Give the backbone structure.
Amino acid sequence: MTSETPRRRLAPEVRRRQVLDAALAVFSEEGFHGASMDAVAARAGVSKPLVYAHGGSKDELFAACLRREAERLLRSVQAAAGEPGEAPLVRLRRALRAFFHALTTQRAGWTVLYRQASTGPFAGEVDALRRRIVEQAADLMAGGLGVPRAVALPYAHTVVGAAEGLADWWLTDPDAGRATDAEPADVLADMLVTVVGPGLDALTGGAIGVSAAVSDER
Amino acid sequence: MTSETPRRRLAPEVRRRQVLDAALAVFSEEGFHGASMDAVAARAGVSKPLVYAHGGSKDELFAACLRREAERLLRSVQAAAGEPGEAPLVRLRRALRAFFHALTTQRAGWTVLYRQASTGPFAGEVDALRRRIVEQAADLMAGGLGVPRAVALPYAHTVVGAAEGLADWWLTDPDAGRATDAEPADVLADMLVTVVGPGLDALTGGAIGVSAAVSDER
Amino acid sequence: MTSETPRRRLAPEVRRRQVLDAALAVFSEEGFHGASMDAVAARAGVSKPLVYAHGGSKDELFAACLRREAERLLRSVQAAAGEPGEAPLVRLRRALRAFFHALTTQRAGWTVLYRQASTGPFAGEVDALRRRIVEQAADLMAGGLGVPRAVALPYAHTVVGAAEGLADWWLTDPDAGRATDAEPADVLADMLVTVVGPGLDALTGGAIGVSAAVSDER
Amino acid sequence: MTSETPRRRLAPEVRRRQVLDAALAVFSEEGFHGASMDAVAARAGVSKPLVYAHGGSKDELFAACLRREAERLLRSVQAAAGEPGEAPLVRLRRALRAFFHALTTQRAGWTVLYRQASTGPFAGEVDALRRRIVEQAADLMAGGLGVPRAVALPYAHTVVGAAEGLADWWLTDPDAGRATDAEPADVLADMLVTVVGPGLDALTGGAIGVSAAVSDER
DNA sequence: CATGAATGAGCATTCATTCAT
DNA sequence: GATGAATGAATGCTCATTCAT
């Protein structure tokens, strides 16, 4: 018999990450229902009971993936958005750049979060995340300028939706954002600011110097 | 056997529509994997083999639902967009209004298209549809004004993504678009034009009279 | 390929009995936990889903076996016990004869009822059955003679317990009851009456002519 | 690792008893199949491998419990039965009293022996025990009076079965044996002698002074 | 010696799919 | 043409058992 990988003993947290990583990959490729625990185990290179030991039931495992990826994504974007003192569109642009950058390293996570989870028993969890993101965006604007919340909220939904649309495009089409030789993530973020920035200006009655913000920080 | 409902022989195309309708309903409620062929048959009020006879395998059935709903949606929007002669933003707004209106009568279809199908073996099919929509939007602008395709395409992705985001919001949150007592579908469409219109103006170097178009046709 | 048994279509009630019979056999041999649905299916010569279709879940299947066997057994004994008008010991003897006779054709049922089910989620069901039997026996005596219930009840438990003990012996040991060439079931029943009859006489202060009853109806 | 409970090295036989006690408790509560080795280990407060080291496989562990409890029970009863010199019914009554008394302190053991083990791979073991008990009872009578073995054996089965029936009743129903305020174990034992004593007298043609024995030793 | 970590094997259950009527 | 009856193939999950430390 060829010397199979010997039954190594690993630290629980290492194993847990291993399992979560495998689960994320499989879930993102096959979807929640399409993914089998066997497939997760195989991907992780371990036995099925170990998956259960470290990840719990299939539902728990999926929820754990979800939460981990959401946390990661939110953290990146929040850190990039910076302090409330700055100009809203500048903060928005930095946040969007961070968002598109994060997707490059979290492609599977994004897929799981936005394509797999919005259905089934986790719609609630994902909805909550989405709401947190949108709220954050709405706060960014409602706080930064005097925009009333009732105006900021649909705007935030629009921007977040647009970002998701571009993200999907980017992850699907290899040419997306590659018109120039700048970093595609930045190109897409800037593009988005260019498109929605003036609209925000219009909504707020010119409270922001859009063009300045848009042309800034290149 | 006592002749209960006499199991009328129906014309094949009628049966087919019956089956597709049932399938759409079940798929939209339970998701692709959650839906069982038994449930579809029960919903259609026919036997399972008949479902197979008229709808093919589960995959084929799902794909058929997908295509039918996509066709419907595209047709509505295309019809509303009108002729190439008119002002792009006017056409865009009409198209968006039609889109949001269509969702009210095609809620199940939308759910299936965008929540269930974007994963699994149908991602391709959905992608193709999305691409058709985006192409159409890009044409609308690239044709209407002198915008180069390379600029129009990402813009189109942005707008379509934003529309999807708002649509999800709308279908999820009962308050979405109900700030005034205007038709919510129109409110959302107009909101979107307000947000992305000026950006288009900026992108094209002022080729369109945005403000006019935006305030027009109220 | 050798012509396997062709997938015959059978009437539902026939199939159901087939499945129940197989389940009873397997349960009686392996116990509830030891029995696998695969084994039941194999024994019935059908596929596993068919077992589920006709027998429900494993629990339901077991419960169904239980109830069917209990019903059978009770019916036999009740019929044999006859009308309240007759002498108690005569009725008791006839009932016991019927009981031991029933065991010959219901060996598996007995095992399932008394050896498998007294544990696990069905203890309640079996307890109820046992109580019905004991109550019936107690009534037989409390009603037939003037014995107070408080005396009849432990007596009934004693007699039923003794009958079960003999039954186990009989089903285990091939020699049991074969001292003479009379029907073993009858020998055991009569033996039991001989042993416990005089005790009943003693308990009731000689209300019954035991010896007469005991020697009667040979 | 911080030395919590220092996991004392214990003498092997002490450990073994610890493990057997835990196993008995778990088996009696959950049944053979329902009991998991994890549960046994947890109950014993030791690790699973230690259970294997001291108790062997699950089957062996169960068998060990079985044998230990059987031994205990037999010893109690044998000791109580006393010397062959005495009157058979007196000895029987003492033995029965000891039996019912033993159950109060060995409830778990009884449950395991008679409810869990009578099925599956241990039926043999339990049968052997039962046979030893019955043999003993038969010897008691065949030896004490001139009864031939062929008569004594079924009688013994009857008495033992009746005792088991009463025991089950007692352990199930809290009112059993509590008519007077005498010790229930004694009440049940005496009750049993009252019921089966006269029958033995009848079988042997009046060789024993039943009434004397029965009323004796109150 | 004692254990945490790991696994092979099995089980109840469901479902898409297809014959026989 | 339409259906009730049947099945092959998975799938989620658990457990007795054993290494590596």
User: Anything to note?
Assistant: Residues 58-81 of chain D form the longest helix (24 residues).
